[in-house]
Structure formats: C-alpha cells, structure tokens
UniProtKB/TrEMBL annotation:
<keyword id="KW-0378">Hydrolase</keyword>
<feature type="active site" description="Nucleophile">
    <location>
        <position position="170"/>
    </location>
</feature>
<dbReference type="GO" id="GO:0017000">
    <property type="term" value="P:antibiotic biosynthetic process"/>
</dbReference>
<comment type="similarity">
    <text>Belongs to the peptidase S45 family.</text>
</comment>
<keyword id="KW-0106">Calcium</keyword>
<dbReference type="InterPro" id="IPR014395">
    <property type="entry name" value="Pen/GL7ACA/AHL_acylase"/>
</dbReference>
<protein>
    <submittedName>
        <fullName>Penicillin acylase family protein</fullName>
    </submittedName>
</protein>
<feature type="binding site">
    <location>
        <position position="246"/>
    </location>
    <ligand>
        <name>Ca(2+)</name>
    </ligand>
</feature>
<dbReference type="InterPro" id="IPR002692">
    <property type="entry name" value="S45"/>
</dbReference>
<dbReference type="Pfam" id="PF01804">
    <property type="entry name" value="Penicil_amidase"/>
</dbReference>
<keyword id="KW-0865">Zymogen</keyword>
<dbReference type="InterPro" id="IPR023343">
    <property type="entry name" value="Penicillin_amidase_dom1"/>
</dbReference>
<feature type="binding site">
    <location>
        <position position="243"/>
    </location>
    <ligand>
        <name>Ca(2+)</name>
    </ligand>
</feature>
<dbReference type="InterPro" id="IPR043147">
    <property type="entry name" value="Penicillin_amidase_A-knob"/>
</dbReference>
<keyword id="KW-0479">Metal-binding</keyword>
<dbReference type="GO" id="GO:0016811">
    <property type="term" value="F:hydrolase activity, acting on carbon-nitrogen (but not peptide) bonds, in linear amides"/>
</dbReference>
<dbReference type="GO" id="GO:0046872">
    <property type="term" value="F:metal ion binding"/>
</dbReference>
Length: 699
C-alpha cells in the first residue's frame, strides 16, 4: 500500500491513501513528522513519566496520572474496541512509530531535554485522549466546595458558583438554510482551550475511496473527533459542562491480608501495588497505587491506629476518583471511524449514541437539510450530592444507578451552544453565564442571509455584557475624589467592548482586578486564603482563592452569606486606587501567552488582544492574578453545507510544530485579526511532498 502527503499554502497536511488503514497509518506518520515533540510529551503525560525528562516539577502530574490508572484504563478500553476499530487505531500507532525518528530529528526540544523518542503502544492514543480530558469534568471543584463548606458552613457550598462571571468555554452556532444566502446550513464556532504551542488542534484532510473528510485532529489521536466536514455532513461540539466524575472519601485499613476499604456493606478488599516515578536530576519517587470498588485513590489522607476485624490495623483516609471509562472500560473510540464514514445527520447521531467522554453538546447538519442539536456522552445517574462535593464511600445512596439519557432539541432557525445552562442543564452543576450565548443569538438574529465570511464578525465580537453588574455599583457611588470621579465618568460612557485599542476597557479591567483582590483579602475569606489547601499541587488551579473570586465575583458582591463584606466600600476603594494609574490600552495589558512545556524563546512576541472571558471573543485571563491570556479560541471554523470549498478555518499559530518552520506561526496574523483561511480539498490545487509521497507502508 502507498500513501501521499500534500500541502496547501498554509502547510496543512492533506493525506491520501487507498484504504482506511493506510490512511490511519499516514495520519500517524504525519503527526510524528509535524508534531513529534508534542505527541511524545503527551505520551509521557498519559503514562506518568514526564518527570523523567522535565525533572521534579513534573512529579505531581505523574503521581496523579499513575494513581488515577490512566494508562491501564486506556489499555482496558483498547481491549474492548471492535476489531475493525482496534486495527484502525493500531495502524495509526504503526504510522507514529514509523515517523518518530525522523520527526524527532527535526525537533530541537528532544536534544534540549535529553529525551529520546520512544515506542507507542496500541492503546497510547486512548491514553493521550484521557490525559487531555481527565480534568475536563472539573472534579477538583468538588475539593474546593468541600473546603468552602468546611470553613464557611454548608450553606456556602455554592458561594463561588461560576454561573456569575465564569471561565471561558467554547462557542458554537448553527444557522439553518432558511437563514443563509445559499439555502444550506452553516455551522461555525471556536473551541476555547489553553492556547498551546504547538496547538491542541491540527487542521487536516483525510482522503481515501471510502471517505474524504476535513477537520481538526488532536495530534496523537486518529481521526477527527470534534470538528469535521465529510462533504455531505458536518459536525461541531462544545463542552456540555456536565458532571460525570465523582470523588469518594475512603476509609482504608492495612491488615496482614492487604488493604481494605470501607463501603456501604462493610470492609471490602482493595488492590495495592507500588510504582516508581523516575525523576531527571533527582531521586526516584515511590508511590502506592490503591484502587477501591469506587475507583483509584488519587489523594492521600491522614493515617491513624485502629482495631480491625483480624487485629490491629492502620486506618487512613483517602479520596478516590470514579470516572466512566474506568467503570465501563469504554472511551467511545468506536465512534471515531464511524464519524469519518458519516454521510448524514442520522449517521452522526447514531454514532454519537456510543460516545463516552468528554460529554459534549453537538451540532450537525447535512446537505439534505438535516439538523442535529444534542448532548453526547456518559453521565451517571446518582445522588445530587455526588455532583457537589466529596461523598462518603461507606454511606449507601451514592452508588451509580445507570446512565442518563442525553437531551436533544429541535432547531428552529438558529442553535447556539456556549457552555450555558441550557440543553445540558439536567446533567451538570455549574455552567458558564449566559452572556456569550445571548450575544451570539442576538447577532445571528440580525440577518437571514448569512454567508461563511460573515461569521468572522461573530467570532471577534468584544461586547462584555458581564460588565453591567460592577458598573451599576460604580454608578451608585458618590463623594468620590476628582480623579476617581473622572474615571467613573469614563467607565459609565464606555461602550462595553473589550477592544484591544480601548483605554476604557483597560480601566474596567484594572478596576475589576482591584475589586477581586480586595474581596479575596476580606477577613471573611481568610480561612480559604491559607496556602496551600490540603490537596496535591496538580489541583491548585481549582483551589486558588483569588481566581475563584474573579470568576464568582458577581455572586460574591451580592451574597448575604458574607455579612461583613461591604461591597460598596470595596468598589469605592478599588475605583480610587485605579484612578491613580497611568492610562493604557487593553491590548497593552491583555497579551497572548501560549502554554508551552519548555520556556519560550527569548524576545518572542506577545501580541495584544481584544476580548475577555465573557465576550464571544473569549480570550481569557484571570482578573486579580494576571491580564495575560493563555486560554481562548484554539481554532475557528465555518462549515458550509452548500459547498465544502466555501468553508473556512484557522488556528492560533500554525499547522506545524517544528521551531523555525515556515508554518509554525504563519496563521497568527489571521487569528489576531479574525480572518480565516479557505478550506481547500481539491488535490489538483495542492502540492505533493515528494519525499513523503508514494512511500511504502509496512503494516
């Protein structure tokens, strides 16, 4: 068998092979050539071996991954795949292994860290997927709520709920044919993740006689899971904000027979073994890996002496994690080849019935006018308390009782999915506020003649409706000093758009940060400010008081649970402080800061950005902590069902992950300005790479 690699003007890979297995091999080999450092780092993340080349700072992640049994879960899920899917994933892995040596030779990060490319196992792509999404359901928020309840009382359990100003999520919208110029549906949006360098998503075109699909792949994972267009049907997703991972407080005891865990029916056997984490430049770290009937123990607790049934025993506490792929031994990967073969909305719908995680809201449309708006994924049925906090493993009533039916809705002209409390409301606890969803719907309602290029205006919209609650408090202030009064007037005259060249937007952001910092310093919250809270460092982003205040500010300024917090005085003091600062534009403060495993090159450009976490242009920072943005649109797309060649896409940086390569950062100007590159699928318009083309595939 042979495969060929073509490139368009942006260096995007277009892969052609005579059959699906040859195409999977080609996709794996291309990932190894274009993204060798990225995918090898992700393999190590999935196995818990990053400290072996990154040093002691990576031990917390490795410890968590090993205790959560991610690699073993990936292996189990691979073993339950349908035979055809297993062969397809295996062909991808064979391609990765065939291409890694060459890809690593082009990637200087290997030499910089002393890392040599390794060997991928058949289940490694499933492990990579798990490592990307194990924290996606936000279970560490339950640790935070537990501490809030313990320190402030159970009535404060949801005090910091993010349905006030919330963290960035994803945008997606679908416009039916009766509202487009062509008479066929359009699907558009932008997933919001950490802006990684190299990027999380890879634009790709996969072609064989059985199917021809364009979309965004995840390097290290075969197929096109989240955003794709087969020519006759297209699909896209956003995070449903559902709750499907549970934490159990375990009581464990060690006896002469091993480890036991206390469950609703008494003491039951648990498994335990030891693993060693290799550490570059340091001593290896040994850990116990324990798993109860609920799930793997991911957090240690204090130990104490106690009397067991068979004599003296050491009793300790821990926290176990229960997550669907570990329970079901299914990650949903059988869906991936079915999506590539899909021709209609019904095909996509049927395939997604088998999806597991992450749980997503999905839009799909086909060339026959079919439309789909549904939730896909596994959400267990259980007690509501499971969704809020750590629950006691020994108390009955917290067991999983099957799987929720996933909601769906009819599409009447327009469908929007922006992580709001909407279609997926029965499946979650905290959602994004409605600001982005409401704004997108309002913008879409303004026309019935939408065309693909029109969508850029929605992608780049900077209106911040979330500013209203704080500005209403500013409007009620009186008796201010002269400078503060002038600032107040500027803020109240501001158009509430977080434009990069706006000084008023910067004024607002500075005021908000000052308010956040003062609320976080309030005596009523002092018990939550004592660092660190008693949990592993890997969960710190969910346990940072200032960040929690930033995204729960609207609720905190109005709550009656903090009677000592004088919100008017807080806003007044913050306004007086901010008024003394030299004026700047929002783009001078709010700059792109991509996430990297290794430090950025000295002098690398950090361009200024418009937007904010509750704008449609959701370039997220953390008020009170930093104005730098490491999270935002990790891709943008417009899928046209009238003609796929009219579709558009872009990523924040570029198609390739090789430092210094022409296509490493060449899409950044498009991304910054809101422009999109054309989707090209005609191989006659592409350039074949001779050294890749017609290469024999040993399978």
């Amino acid at each position: 068998m042979a495969s060929s690699t073509y490139r368009d003007a942006w260096g995007i890979p277009h892969l052609r092979a005579p059959d699906p297995l040859g195409l999977a091999f080609a996709q794996g080999r291309n990932a190894a050539h274009d993204r060798a450092w990225q995918i090898e780092a992700e393999r190590h993340r999935s196995q818990g071996t990053t400290a072996s080349f990154l040093g002691a700072g990576a031990v917390p992640w490795d410890r968590f991954v090993r205790r959560a049994r991610l690699d073993d879960t990936a292996r189990r899920c691979f073993e339950t795949l349908e035979e055809e899917t297993a062969a397809w994933v295996s062909a991808y892995v064979d391609g990765v292994n065939a291409g890694l040596e060459r890809g690593a030779a082009d990637a200087p990060e290997f030499a910089a860290t002393g890392l040599a490319p390794g060997t991928w196992r058949k289940w490694t792509p499933l492990g990579v997927w798990l490592a990307h999404h194990i924290l996606f359901a936000g279970f560490p928020t339950k640790l935070w709520r537990e501490e809030v309840a313990r320190r402030l009382g159970d009535e404060a359990l949801e005090l910091f709920a993010a349905d006030g100003p919330g963290t960035s999520g994803s945008n997606g919208w679908m416009v039916a044919g009766d509202r487009t110029a062509s008479g066929a549906a359009l699907i558009a949006g932008d997933p919001h993740r950490f802006i990684q360098d190299p990027g999380f998503y890879q634009q790709i075109h996969l072609s064989c006689p059985e199917y021809d699909v364009v979309g965004f792949a995840v390097p290290g994972v075969p197929g096109i899971a989240h955003f794709g267009h087969t020519g006759t049907v297209a699909w896209a997703i956003t995070n449903a904000m559902s709750d499907y991972h549970d934490l159990y407080r375990e009581r464990l005891r060690t006896t002469g027979d091993g480890v036991e865990a206390l469950g609703p029916e008494g003491w039951r056997p648990a498994t335990r073994h030891r693993e060693t984490i290799p550490v570059a430049g340091g001593d290896p770290v040994e850990i116990d890996v324990i798993e109860t009937e609920r799930g793997p123990v991911v957090i240690d607790g204090p130990a104490e002496g106690a009397e067991g049934d068979s004599g003296p025993a050491t009793v300790s506490e821990g926290i176990s994690l229960r997550y669907p792929p570990r329970v079901t031994e299914d990650l949903g990967f059988d869906v991936l080849p079915a999506l590539l073969r899909a021709r209609t909305v019904a095909d996509v719908d049927r395939a997604l019935d088998r999806w597991i995680e992450p749980v997503n809201v999905v839009h799909a449309a086909d060339t026959s006018g079919g439309l789909l708006h549904r939730v896909a994924g596994y959400v267990p049925v259980r007690h509501r308390e499971n969704g809020l906090r750590i629950v006691p493993a020994w108390r009955s009533g917290h067991e999983w009782q099957g799987r929720h039916d996933t909601p769906r809705a009819e599409v009447d002209g327009i469908a929007v999915m922006a992580n709001e409390r909407g279609l997926a409301a029965p499946l979650g606890t905290e959602f994004a506020p409605p600001y982005r969803a409401d704004r997108i719907e309002a913008l879409l309602s303004a026309s019935r003649q939408w065309e693909p290029h029109d969508m850029a205006a929605i992608h780049m919209d900077t209106q911040l409706a979330a500013a209203a609650p704080l500005l209403e408090r500013v409007a009620r202030l009186d008796g201010l000093g002269p400078e503060a009064e002038r600032l107040r007037a500027r803020l109240l005259a501001w158009n509430r758009h977080m434009d990069a060249d706006s000084t008023a937007a910067a004024d607002y952001a500075r005021l908000r940060s000052a308010v956040v910092q003062r609320v976080a310093a309030a005596p009523e919250l002092k018990s939550l400010a004592v660092p660190p809270l008693p949990y592993p460092a890997v969960f710190e982003p969910w346990l940072n008081l200032t960040a929690k205040v930033a995204f729960g500010l609207e609720n905190l300024l109005t709550t009656e649970l903090l009677p000592g917090l004088d919100s008017a005085a807080v806003v007044r003091a913050a306004l007086e402080e901010t008024a003394c600062l030299e004026p700047v534009t929002w783009g001078e403060l709010h700059r792109l800061a991509p996430c990297r495993i290794l430090p950025a090159a000295e002098g690398e450009e950090r361009p200024g950005l418009g937007g904010d976490h509750d704008c449609v242009l959701a370039t997220s920072s953390t008020p009170g902590v930093t104005d730098l943005s490491s999270r935002g649109p990790s891709a943008r797309y417009v899928w046209d069902l009238a003609d796929r060649e009219n579709s558009l896409w872009t990523v924040p940086l570029g198609a390739r992950g090789i430092p210094g390569a022409p296509h490493r950062r060449d899409q950044l100007p498009l991304w910054l300005s809101g422009q999109l590159a054309p989707v090209v699928t005609d191989f006659a318009l592409l350039v074949e790479e001779p050294e890749h083309g017609s290469q024999d595939i040993g399978m």
